[in-house]
Design a protein that fits this description.
Blueprint lengths: L1 E12 L4 H11 L2 E3 L2 E10 L2 E9 L4 E6 L4 E6 L7 E9 L4 E6 L6 H29 L5 H11 L2 E8 L4 H7 L2 E9 L21 E6 L6 H13 L4 E8 L5 E6 L8 E3 H5 L13 H12 L1 H4 L3
Parallel strand pairs: 9-13
Antiparallel strand pairs: 1-8, 1-9, 1-14, 2-3, 3-4, 4-7, 5-6, 7-8, 10-11, 10-12, 12-13
Helix pairs in contact: 1-2, 2-3
Amino acid sequence: MKIRYLGFALEGEGPLGLPELTTFLQKASPARFALYDRIIRVAKKDGYFVGLVLSTKDQRQVCELAKENLVIEVREVAAGRAVIDFNFFVINEATRRGLYQHYHQSMGVRKFGEYLDHHLKQLVRREVESAISAAEASGEVTEKKKKTIRAGLSSRLKLTQLVRNEDVPELVEAMSRVKRLRIDFGALKAQQAPLFAPVMKDLITLAREEYVFDRDKSQSKVKAAVLSVLKGLSDAKGRIVGDDEDGHEQIINLLNNYEKFGDVEFGQAAKTMNLKVEEFAKSAMIKALLDAAKKNKDIFEVQ
């Protein structure tokens, strides 16, 4: 089984961001989310937030197969211990782009984004309640004041996955609906953006085109058109916005011809996993993720 390093970007709005959220997360840990108790630890290292999420499972038995005589054996998980999944991550402090370590059946990168946003909403709620209580104590609270407090503390966080162009067809086909395509041209070319050339081509370094698709159009035709356009581009980045199979908005951030961010065999990584949770920042996995991010500085460190 492979452990993969997945790229992602965090986009946020409002006064409460990653520094406040990471502090809140650790104080709230462990906390139940999506059926499992999650334990999270976050630290700062080399200009990155580095972190570890442990998902503890309720199961008390583990099944094993004796290969020689094909006998199934069930053993009890020792008292005081729990079966876990682990996911390490690194996020650049300046760009909010990072890498997430994932393997089959562990928490996916999009679920990780939901996990962060879920706790940000809890943090906002706590801060709003605290601010309203302070206003009430001073006798200054009105409904208008409460509304102003809520608006002033409103914050959101959204995670989008960074993908290489060769990964795009499979992801697009999995969408239930493609809504928009945005293309960012790193260098303006007359044949790619005729409306700008030749008048403006010496004045700008980035051209952007966005296409919005009609809801009633055939999705098979829309997907084919999107993939055809992307196949013909050699120096463009951008994003595809659509809905996943559950109707939730999904954003695919496009990269162009970058090498994959890395992977490792699970068994090889497992050999380095005997560590104290509080010392996770010194782990081989965090080092591997930081090395991969720094190897791709133009993606993770350049704003």
